[in-house]
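Notes from the 1:1 (GR / supervisor)

We went over the backlog. Supervisor wanted to see one worked example end to end before approving the batch request, so GR pasted a single chain during the call. The sequence is below; no edits were made to it. Supervisor asked that the structure be written out right there so they could see what the output format looks like.
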Amino acid sequence: RALVNRVWAHYFGRGIIDPPDNLSAFNPATHPELLKELSEGFIKNKYDLRWLHRTIVNSRTYQQANTPAKGAEADRTHYAFFPLRRLPAEVMLDALNYATGTSENMDMQYHYWPEKMTTVQVPFIPKNAFVTHVLETYGRPQRNSAVQCDCERDSGGSIFHVLTLANHPRVWEKIKEPNGRVAKLLKATGDEASKIDELFLATVSRLPTAAERETCLQFLKDADTLEKGYQGVLWSLLNTREFLVQH
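Structure output shown during the call:
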């Protein structure tokens, strides 16, 4: 029950028993039948964490829209809508790498780490200065001998988050990477509209609206070069709340 409750809290920002570390008779579950069913399923599947995560994220509750119905704006207890939350540090950096078509060398070969790893795979802070900066700025737990709990994660917002994506030189290097997404788009066949569609799918996981597509196409026409135009569109998408927030 404790583990099921904590995993649920990870995805929804509050536990079925909330706060998640206060399991007592004086703090009952808001949905005891749900907690019971998930706990029994977890035991039946031999405490398989993958089963637990898969079951929760495939649920209708997790897949609800983030726009609440009228009158339910403050209803967090009954999960009337999906709560907006910032991407965790590791996920955000991996999303940035995917969107720009780049990767990071963690510079940990002397610890026998592979040269290329996703950020969610790294066991602790690597030597790569940019990765270290992002993980620390976006609040990943230190995972050292003194701090070994994911409850130490800082999920709040900060001006440093905005400045990192907007101004950090490494972000622009990724956007301009010779083998990155923009460079490949420039070499690919197809019209500008389909390439704009790809940038939207790679960043915010949806196609642009007609108005957004028209605005981006006009931006490409007004840019000094087509390359700078695509770079500007990608930079703009990376700096939207839609990219930074899970919704």
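Supervisor's comment: The beta strands are 85-86, 245-246.
Batch request approved.
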